[in-house]
Amino acid sequence: MNTIKIILTVLIILIFGCDDAGDKPKEKDHTVIGRDSWKIVQEDIFASNCVDCHTVGTSFANQSDLLLTPDVAYDQLMNHPVNNQSALDNNLERLGTEGLSSLYKSFLWEKINAPDKEHFYGEHPHYGSLMPLGMPYLTNGQLEFIRQWIVAGAPETGVVADSSLFDDTTRFVEVEFAPLTPPENGIQVHVGPFEVQPHYEREFLNFVNIDTLDEVYIKQYEISMRSGSHHFILYTFTNVVPPMLVPDPGEYRDYRDANGNYLINNLAITSYHVYFAGTQWPYMNYHFPPGVALKVDINNGLDQNSHYINRTDEVQIGEVYTNIYFADPSEVEHEAQVMFINKTDFELPPHEITTLEHTISVGERIHIFQLFSHAHEHLLEFSVEIVGGDRDGELVYFAYDWEHPPILDLDPPITLEAGEGLKLNATYDNWTDKTLRFGLLGEDEMMILFGYYYTD
């Protein structure tokens, strides 16, 4: 059992978000200096997209019990409960003033956040429809303006969001699974199609031999997956892999057999993996910040780690394409480093709600430019706060969703001095009859914080 636990602790699962939008005509100039952010939300977003339906006497207003006319909109959002039983059961509110944590408890944000459409309809089938109904989704600029306003506490007065965001008039468009066009300066890898049996979680490794390159700088990676994937991860290897563990190219090395028993010989290689890219979204296109790139040694090949969860009565087909884009080394100002904080020594008693804490400190000055959490289906909430320094106790990350947790891109980055750190808090509801521990299946649990940073 100790061998299995050691092997399991090195496995990494991470979550990214969807970066996907199409161009739309620019609508009008909203950059009115000095206007209250709430007034901009009301006059420049709600007035043209929401008020026609959410006004006195309409069936939509009666059904939702929500009016968004200027005279009552703010009071309606702040001081009235959600008129949706499923959202109430999930402890959502129309809008709150607690900043980042309120964003992910906001029914308003759930209803307008079109880029999270898969999560909205897949995980909350009784929340109704995305808004505005029968009209184009809000632009990405409008959504980001509302997001900044909510994170700033959703004040009724004051300028707390950047009105130049309205210059971004692109909107979310869905992307169907399709093979990716290989990059001109980079490589493409592919796995599948493969089968996932009914009511089964299939996780495996698939090795790709790449013997023409040494160290490269990566500035971007793009992943396209068939639906049903829990996660997809790309690994390189350390330089000390025992010859007996070197995999054969193209072989599907499953983590478990058909009866659900772990295959230790296939898991052993994970002790020599080095993570560098992955996602839990059907489509993801991640760009490192300008001047930042991740150095990766791919001369020893890549191991593709795919995990599909099939809870249907039919066989599902999985498939993944990945593009890796190279950066010009002369343009790299900061070399990205992977942040991986993983708590594995925990127990969650049956039929109890348990909160876990985990604090780490850094040994040198670092600049964190991205954070994202990972846990499994029993998670209620996941938060991160700064420990030490002038920002001690400041909440910098919050998530309620275990399948599609938010990805926090930080510009400017969070700077931690030597001796400062991060405190992770995660709360779980173990509704089962057994004690839960760290494990690979969706019914097990994890407490992981991922991110990227660079040093001076």
Can you walk through the features of this model?
With 456 residues, the chain is an alpha+beta fold. It has 3 domains: 2-19 and 175-335, Jelly Rolls (Sandwich); 23-172, no CATH class; 337-455, Sandwich (Jelly Rolls). It is 16% helix and 34% strand. It has 10 helices and 21 strands. Strands 3, 5, 9, 10, 12 and 13 form a 6-stranded mixed β-sheet that branches. A hairpin with a 7-residue loop joins strand 17 (379-387) and strand 18. The two termini are 41 Å apart.
Give a quick rundown of the structure:
With about 450 residues, the chain is an alpha+beta fold. It is built from 10 helices and 21 strands.
Explain the layout of strands and helices:
Blueprint: H1 2-9, E1 21-22, H2 37-49, H3 59-64, H4 73-79, H5 85-89, H6 100-103, H7 107-112, H8 117-123, H9 140-151, E2 171-172, E3 186-196, E4 200-208, E5 215-225, E6 229-237, E7 252-254, H10 264-267, E8 273-279, E9 283-287, E10 292-297, E11 302-310, E12 316-326, E13 334-335, E14 337-342, E15 352-361, E16 366-374, E17 379-387, E18 395-399, E19 408-416, E20 421-430, E21 448-455
Parallel strand pairs: 10-13
Antiparallel strand pairs: 1-2, 3-12, 4-7, 4-11, 5-9, 5-10, 5-12, 6-8, 6-11, 14-21, 15-20, 16-19, 16-21, 17-18, 17-20
Helix pairs in contact: 2-9
The name of the CATH architecture of the largest domain is Sandwich
Mean pLDDT: 86
Number of domains: 3
Name the structural class: alpha+beta
Estimate the strand proportion: 25-35%
Low-confidence stretches: 1-32
The CATH topology of the largest domain corresponds to Jelly Rolls
Distance between the termini: 41 Å
Helix content estimate: 10-25%
Largest sheet: 6 strands, mixed
The CATH C-level class name of the largest domain: Mainly Beta
Question: Count the helices. How many?
Answer: 10
What oligomeric state do these chains adopt? single chain
What's the overall geometry? globular
Radius of gyration: 23 Å
Please count the beta strands (DSSP E, at least 2 residues each).
21
